[in-house]
Amino acid sequence: MCGIFGYVGNKECISLLLEGLKKLEYRGYDSAGVAVIDNNRLIVEKCAGKISELEKLLDGNSHIDSHIGIAHTRWATHGRPSDENSHPHTDCKDEIAVVHNGIIENYLQIRRDLAADGHVFKSTTDTEIIAHLIEKNMNGSTSTSLRTSLEEAVRKAVSELTGSFAIAVISNKDPDKIIVAKRGSPLKIGLGDGETFVASDIPALIKYTKKVIFMGEQEMAVVTKNDVKVTDFAGNPVKKEVTLISWDPVSAEKGGYAHFMLKEIHEQPRAIRDTVADRVKDGQIHFDELEIDKKELGKINRVVFTACGTSWHAGLIGEYLIEQFVKIPCEVEYAAEFRYRHPVVDEKTLVIAISQSGETADTMGAVWEAKSRGAKVLSICNVVGSSIARESDGVLYTYAGPEIGVASTKAFTTQIVIIYLFSIMLGVIKGCVSQNESEKMVKELYELPQKVELILAQESKVEALSEKLYKSTNALYLGRGKGFPIALEGALKLKEVSYIHAEGYPAAEMKHGPIALIDKNMPVVVIALRGRRYEKILGNIEEVKARGGYVVAIAVDGDTEIKDKADDIFYIPHTTESLSPILAVIPLQLLAYYIAIKRGCHVDQPRNLAKSVTVE
Ligand code: F6R
């Protein structure tokens, strides 16, 4: 959802800006641009297309000597992707440059007022009005004398904006500082030695520094090479903590893999191990970072998971686990639906918000809604210090490491791991799970990374399967019980990276409609896990076969019954029914990946998508 990067220091900054932007390209890739100040001159270069296009454009600019600059990679909201609509945007005199992530909701009215005052606009974006507002505030009523500092002009401008934004502003009239402001969209400041960085996300910072300030809601900062001064929008100083980021810079590189998605699929054994480690001591589950105490958790009588996309699928698995281990009512809500209904939650409801990025606007809104209604909010996030993590009463981190591929993979499996551990712990607190049972279940989890490795070792089988499927135009994914969310997730992975239309269904629902779609051209992927619904899923396979459908089954090692029924079978190792979704999803991630590659799709940056959806 747009990436912002900024630098102020002693180094020549164009190459730094490009490097930072590349680390943020997963946030949007419709257009890119930079603004730098060279010898009191503001220089802006921008164009439609990916960062590689901007790189070409900047190729002839080696004469620029600049030590301060801002940069942007765009996911278009207002205004089509074009050169003019690319950020940075400037004021009438090209003295102020602004990059923005978010949506300004009242931009039309402001634009009309500014146009009536004589401001001339070059783009059709919501962002450009910010540059003109700052210009107006700096100049006061006359257009020649500068009467207000850049900082004050930005402060005044943001107070007039409704909607969400993270902005970075530079001006050749105040050439040594970047002014940043945040409401609703993520913004971090990286503290180097005699240099300071600004970025939407941590992967862009960790190569340069591990010391990071997380900007809070309605905060702005004056950023210079040696100092960061943070205030609220009213101008009151805000004391900020500096967080030390543990992510290794190498974790934000492809590490020899062709794509981040493939790398991240392969990282799952490590990600699961890291997520479990430290959470289990002497067979007991501990979440040291959890700030909601056990007494309070004991009073919880209902759980509501809220999330979007893949994280919502993890929530669906959570519903099965909470009901099974804790035996209290549990619901799963799309965050955007939950926040705008009139959700009935109270202080005995635990709302669990799941978000890899910790910045998803819909999920953030759901957190605020739940808190305003008195519920306790626990979040499951992958990004330390992210907005959702900070706004929640407690947070449990998945230690997946940076997830850069737009299609979520390792975040999903580690979210399930956290939910599994938390459900068992809550079950113990509530007296529904004995200590002995808890220890046994945790032991199963220890064996999981090795089982994921066994699946990954059979990658070539999935690749061969993709050869048979990649020309399909539609696909159906079916599952029962905990296999149902995996059917949804398998279908989502396929459609987002390969653009093949795919639907996930509870297998029993097939006969209530989707069965009409089945013919020889419709591949049906069936998640055939062992358990009390197994016979029924075999029945569903028969129904598909009877109508000429082509069945790919994900089955458990040693399943001989399925051999004569499915056309192709991928076997996963045996584990408990509760953990089997984690194993079942891995071949489906690989399948989506290889099908997309065969279709020539850009798997790390699928069209129209962006990671970290910070607009509603
Ligand atoms: C799909 C995918 C998205 C995200 C969703 C929520 O592969 O990545 O569906 O799961 O946008 O994002 P987070 O988890 O960051 O809140």
| SS summary, helix count | 18
**Radius of gyration, Cα only, in angstroms?**
26 Å
Average of pLDDT: 93
Largest β sheet strand count, sense and barrel closure: 8 strands, antiparallel
Distinct bound molecules: fructose -6-phosphate
Strand content: 15-25%
Q: List the uncertain runs.
A: 141-146
Structure classification: alpha/beta
Backbone shape: globular
Number of strands: 26
Strand order of the largest sheet: 3-2-4-1-10-9-11-14
Terminal Cα separation, in Å?
11 Å
Give the proportion of residues in helices: 25-40%
Descriptors for this entry?
single chain, 616 residues, eight-stranded antiparallel beta sheet, 26 strands, globular
What does this structure look like?
The protein has 616 residues and is α/β, with parallel strands linked by helices. Helices cover 34% and strands 23% of the residues. It has 18 helices and 26 strands. Helix 9 (309-325) links the parallel strand 17 (302-307) and strand 18 (330-334). Helix 3 (107-116) packs across helix 4, helix 13 runs antiparallel to helix 14 (435-456) and helix 15 packs across helix 18. It is globular and about 75 Å long. It binds fructose -6-phosphate (F6R). Fructose -6-phosphate is lined by residues 308-311, 355-357, 360, 363, 407-408, 492, 496, 612-613.
